[in-house]
Amino acid sequence: MDLSKARVSPLQSISIPRLELLGAVLGLRLAEKIVKALKLETKDVTIWCDSLNVLWWIKNQSRKLKPFVANRVGFIQSKTELKQWRYIPTKTNVADLLTRGTTVKKKLVRINGWIHRFIGNCRFETDFRKKGDIAADEYHESEKEIIAKAQKESFKEEYSKIEKRKPISISSKIISLNPQIDEDGLLRSCSRLQNAHYLPYDVKYPIILPRGHTITKLIVKHYHDEANHVMRTNQLLTKLSKRYWVIRGREEIRDAEAKFNKCKLRRCKPAQQLMAPLPAMRFKKPLRAFARIGIDFAGPCLTMQGCRELNEIVNDLYKDKITNSTADKGIKWHFNAPLGPHLGGVFEIIVKAVKRATTGILEKADITDEELCTAFTGAESSLNSCPLTYQSANIKDNIPLTPNHFLIGQVGRQFAPDSVQSKGYHPKKRWRRVQELLSHTSRGHWPLGRITGVFEDKDGRVRVVKVKIGEKEFIRPITRLCLLEFDN
């Protein structure tokens, strides 16, 4: 990019497409200046735009548009031809650098690079002066100069003694890093990896950065911006360590994270409060069953009967309608705040348990309605298996009761026996093998395959097999397989 220009949007509210149109007009005027300076013709210029609305306006007749749009489209059509306007996606539009912005570190390094180029060009005649964009070597030289200046400011005494080849003080913060000055004037740490020729130079000799210096903060911010503020402290420190060694790096990164708005938004935690005291109704005299219940859209969760009901769908449900319809029956309602399920207490814990159980069964599977009902049944069985009393660590104590003890009438989760026949297998009795698999694998995640080959070990035993699932073949240990069909 050789030239760019931007304007601040006016205080008057203007739509985004109209602002894009103003940007197109500004770009055309900028192109006219460049063409005039280079002594070219306007028809040889190609103008790129990332707004489809603007391109559509330019392709249409200006008299069909509203005055604001028509005046600017007419100006564009009078200066250029339709074929000169091209579309460019926003992601690849270099002109968006003004709106998206760049890191302060890049600005600082580039500006310093331009200053050095200007100083260098002043020493030579016109034919020998450097032209064009900042080259990679100029960028790196500028960066090294800025870092070296920061090191001289923070480690003034250490830097001076190392230059004079004198030992630094034992109380120095960097004495444990074995600091040395390289040919570029940078203070580097000489690690014990000097003979690791396969490692990059910056990894073996990382640049020492002072804690709390402005340059260090800019470098940390630069790495944070590159990672889109998703890296945690340890991960970002690892990335920094590939080139730099920051004194007390973790504290430096945490200080930076505390100032970044993106980090605050990503890692902020909801407000917490002390747990409220137990409600007074729990300390009153015992009441009859179902005297107090907790309920939400999942149904009565606190106390309920062991039966199934098909509840009708409620289209319109209002708070006043609920209270009025039940007031004559002496029922009092206490409503929790919206989006505050934790205020529901124990019955919301049950709802959370249902969600966890259902999610654990389904995960992200694409299932049918029948499979969804089966998953809910499995979640229901999981909840009804929760003990009603404390589970003792003493083996001599009795097994705690669960709702399933009353609903099923036995210990366990199934009516069918736990053991299945190991002999006399018949294809019609395949369900026995499937039930063996039921307790170990989530429903809907049972890949069935055929064993196409075996690999015998030296002792003649098979521990690895080749399995064909669909059109693909896999090599798996037998510990990952459950045999459903086999020959006697």
Mind explaining what this structure looks like?
β10 and β11 (472-477) form a beta hairpin. 39% of the residues lie in helices and 9% in strands. The chain has helices at 16-38, 52-59, 67-79, 97-100, 104-121, 136-154, 156-163, 201-204, 214-226, 233-240, 249-257, 261-267, 319-327, 346-362, 369-384, 403-407, 430-438; strands at 47-49, 85-87, 179-181, 187-189, 207-209, 244-246, 295-296, 299-300, 450-456, 462-469, 472-477. α5 (104-121) crosses α6 (136-154) and α10 packs across α11 (249-257). The strands form five sheets. The protein has a three-stranded antiparallel β-sheet, with no helix packed on it. It has a two-stranded parallel ribbon with strand order 1-2. A two-stranded antiparallel ribbon has the order 3-4. The chain has 488 residues and is mainly α.
At a glance:
By secondary structure, this protein is mainly alpha-helical. The protein has helices spanning 16-38, 52-59, 67-79, 97-100, 104-121, 136-154, 156-163, 201-204, 214-226, 233-240, 249-257, 261-267, 319-327, 346-362, 369-384, 403-407, 430-438; strands at 47-49, 85-87, 179-181, 187-189, 207-209, 244-246, 295-296, 299-300, 450-456, 462-469, 472-477.
